[in-house]
UniProtKB/TrEMBL annotation, chain A:
The keyword Transmembrane applies. The keyword Membrane applies. Belongs to the cytochrome c oxidase subunit 3 family. InterPro entries: Cyt_c/ubiquinol_Oxase_su3, Cyt_c_oxidase-like_su3, Cyt_c_oxidase_su3-like_sf, Cyt_c_oxidase_su3_a-hlx. Residues 1-209 form the Heme-copper oxidase subunit III family profile domain. It is a multi-pass membrane protein. This is Cytochrome c oxidase subunit 3. Pfam families: COX3. One of its GO terms (cellular component) is plasma membrane. The chain crosses the membrane at residues 20-42, 63-82, 94-112, 142-168, 188-207.
Automatic annotation (TrEMBL), chain B:
The keyword Membrane applies. The keyword GTP-binding does not apply. Keywords: Cell membrane, Membrane, Transmembrane, Transmembrane helix. This is Caa(3)-type oxidase, subunit IV. The chain crosses the membrane at residues 21-43, 49-67, 74-95. It is found in: Cell membrane. It is a multi-pass membrane protein. InterPro entries: Caa3_sub_IV, Cyt_c_oxidase_su4_prok. Its main location: membrane. One of its GO terms (cellular component) is plasma membrane.
């Protein structure tokens, strides 16, 4: 497929177009880092003010679900980068296989998270009058837990929809995936969602285990 | 070229392209196993810094190789570092605020008899 099809106005060369797309995505990702950073900061401060209560609450999260989900996202990052590399070489069937694997791994993450949420609700780990732990500050930890994992899940859902959309477009044919900036830029977003989880994992699952 | 030889060269090409990413993937999984083991080793105050250092190592691998910062123009690295710079500013200014508050403004952990009597922060 000709790379000319991927070139859009106002760019004169594909390289410039790809660089601009990557720069735009990186600027957006920097804003995402700050968005999540505020929540990480809030948790850090509360942890300093109420160290014992936060650690007591951190022991209540399910480390098995958290670890499996971390592994799933790390593998999905590998399949995403392979889809991008296969696209550069024009290997359509490999691109489709890796994109499908990436979306499937992301979906597995969300399904497991759903089971984990069900268990958390069953164990009264939602902040409120029926909360399991009696130290009030322990509720702060779970306030952050629900918001941060929830916002992360929303990001992952958007990423899965985007990957699936490009899967369909490439599968149908006519989409110039070799030269297009779409896959590398989508990859950047997917990897950032992975990086956020890489930091959520020690914050929410590894504290207070000893 | 027959379809069969083409698919064979495609596979060889794909393997050549994937090798590096697979090595990074294995390293990431090894770091995950390491951080999980360390979480259960009693190290006192060191447990949290160790787990965040491993998380930072994982993030660095993903950013350098999967997000291609290692082979990208400096412009992209600059955009990425700009995010980290403002994040560092946010943390530095906030974390220097709390320890330096006057006695009356300090937040201490209260021991309330029931939920709802705790101070707002």
């Amino acid at each position: 497929m000709s790379n000319d099809a991927a070139l859009k106005e106002p760019f004169e060369s594909l390289d410039r177009q790809r660089l601009s797309a990557a720069l735009g995505m990186w600027i957006f990702l920097a804003s995402e880092v700050l968005f999540f950073g505020g929540m990480f900061l809030g948790m850090t401060i509360y942890r300093q003010i109420h160290p014992d209560a936060i650690m007591e609450a951190a022991r209540e999260t399910n480390v098995l679900f958290g670890s499996i989900n971390t592994a799933l996202l790390l593998i999905s990052s590998v399949t995403m980068v392979l889809a991008d590399k296969a696209a550069e070489k024009g290997l359509k069937s490999a691109v489709l296989a890796f994109l499908a694997a990436t979306a499937a791994l992301g979906l597995c993450f969300l399904v497991l998270k759903g089971f984990e949420y069900r268990e958390d609700i069953h164990e009264h780990l939602v902040p409120g009058p029926d909360f399991k732990l009696h130290t009030p500050a322990a509720q702060l930890f779970f306030g952050f837990y629900w918001i941060m994992t929830g916002v992360h899940a929303v990001h992952l859902t958007i990423a899965i929809v985007a990957v699936s959309t490009y899967f369909v477009r490439i599968w149908r044919g006519g989409f110039p995936f070799e030269g297009s900036a779409a896959l590398p830029v989508l990859g950047l977003y997917w990897h950032l969602v992975d990086i956020i989880w890489i930091f959520l994992y020690p914050l929410l699952y590894l504290g207070g285990r000893t | 070229m027959t379809a069969q030889t083409r698919s064979r060269t495609d596979r060889a090409e794909l393997w050549r392209l994937s090798r590096g990413s697979l090595v990074i993937g294995v390293a990431l999984m090894a770091l995950l196993a390491l951080t999980l083991v360390f979480a259960y080793v009693p190290m006192g105050a060191w447990n949290a810094p160790v787990s965040y250092a491993i998380a930072a190592a994982k993030a660095l691998l993903v950013a350098a190789f999967f997000m291609k910062l290692k082979s990208s123009p400096a412009l992209l690295t600059l955009a990425a570092l700009a995010g980290l710079f403002w994040l560092a500013t946010l943390f530095a200014l906030s974390l220097t605020d709390y320890p330096f508050r006057q006695a009356g403004e300090r937040i201490t952990a209260p021991v309330p008899s029931r939920i709802g009597t705790e101070s707002p922060l």
